[in-house]
Amino acid sequence: MSTMCELYPAFLKLSDRRVVVIGGGPVAASKLDALVAAGARVSVIAPDVVEEIAAQPVHIVRRPFIPGDLDEVWFVVAAASPEVNREVAAAAEERRVFVNAVDDPAHASAYLGGVVRRHGVTLAISTDGRAPALAGLLREGLDAVIPDDLEKWLTVADQARQEWKADAVPMEKRRPMLL
Questions:
Q1: Which of 44, 49, 137, 153 has its CA at 20 to 30 Å from residue 55's CA atom?
Q2: Which tens digit of pLDDT belongs to each residue from 136-171?
């Protein structure tokens, strides 16, 4: 996997799609809330899992990873040892499945960034997997400057978009009108 290319930012619709988390420790547990909130059908595969994972509404498979675990999967999070993450990355590559290898950029084809969610607006910050702590600091800074009335902004923008579509206003003219 090449690490020299610029990343393509995207937001994934994981609702009712199968997602696998490999690893049963605190790092794996920290990924579950967002996956569950996205509506993913999550399976956690690990010989042992921490209590935070056992308490989640996920399917738990208590055994080591095998490549077939990634069959029919849309997305995988590898939060295990570097050796296991390497196996997961190879199996994911064969199946054309994106893998987030937590704190292991060499075995990742997807990086999760710092995220700010407020009133239907989501901002994600990435450092291309190089500095997750910096992404977290930037997330905190952005969260501090987002207006408290953002929901009103979103309502106005949504109404304007509907009107512009009905009036066939070209995309390039919409932003100046919103400002």
A1: 137
A2: 899 999 999 999 899 999 999 999 999 999 999 999
